[in-house]
Fold this sequence. Notes:
This protein has 348 residues and is α/β, with parallel strands linked by helices. It has helices at residues 13-24, 38-48, 64-74, 87-99, 114-132, 137-141, 171-179, 200-210, 265-275, 293-301, 319-325, 338-347, and strands at residues 4-9, 29-35, 52-56, 79-83, 103-106, 162-167, 189-193, 214-217, 228-231, 237-244, 247-254, 280-284, 305-309, 331-333. The radius of gyration is 20 Å and the shape is elongated.
Amino acid sequence: MKPIRVLxxxxxxxxxxxxxxxxxxxxxxxxxxxxxxxxxxxxxIKKLNPDVLTLDIEMPxxxxxxxxxxxxxxxxxxxxxxxSLTQKGADETLRALEIGxxxxxxxxxxxxxxxxxxxxxxxxxxxxxxxxKANMARHSTVYHASPSVVPFHPSGGKSGHIIAIGASTGxxxxxxxxxxxxxxxxxxxxxxQHMPETFTASFAARLNTLSQVTVSEAxxxxxxxEGHAYIAPGGPAHLKVIRLGTELVCKLEEGPTVSSHxxxxxxxxxxxxxxxxxxAVGVILTGMGRDGAEGMKAMRNAGAYNIGQNEASCVVYxxxxxxAKAGAxxxxxxxxxxxxALLKACEQ
Length: 348
């Protein structure tokens, strides 16, 4: 089996050395070269034909976002962005994911302890391996149709349903495409997207500007309202849906990781199964791992209708695949067909 060929692009010599050493420690990964700026990287991409690129956002001569746009236009390939966990870094990283970056990794800082550096190394290696298997064909064929809003006509004027969505790698782009098609009267939507604490508020704000639905970061005891979507905040808590009197509300509950994540899709889906059962529609989108499979199975057992994103339109067919193997999904669909399908399920 051929090793994964990686080109590391960063204007910091220290980061180039660190990433190269981390990746080269694995027998199935080879760092073919490093580059200090996009112009250097462009020539080395042509010469070396790497499988995966790691790319710093802030660089001289051409910023990483501009270079990423050129890559995704001329030669789509898996790119992992190196990002700072700041507000500016969050905004830039979200833009990179919308352009087509595979994923991102936090840039190390000088005062990080050995355990944190070890976790960073594990994450970088895992994401490079996943990126090498990414479905890049979907970048030019799936996400660029002109979106139109899908009408929603529930019987009796209100459906009484809620929509629960789980996503991970590739989910930023996938959720954007779904929300571009949702109408202002869509049922309440709760979302867990694997994302750091500093990113979720920015992500909610970006979706809010694009969609007819009002999108916000979930807060404790937010009442679930028609035409509103609530994104699980990154950090120490999981997002749940619970009953408070006669109403359904968001609950942020601190606790350990579940299915290796916090917030966890499994936690959200289990709570939806318990709170509303057959009046829920579940959607599981692109992502690595198996988070969401068990919770979605609980939803289906409670009578919910569940949709999985199909393999051809996924960046990573991990979470939907695990849900399908668990018997948790009723149907798998291309991403662009999911908005109409979930709204139709809520009409019935």
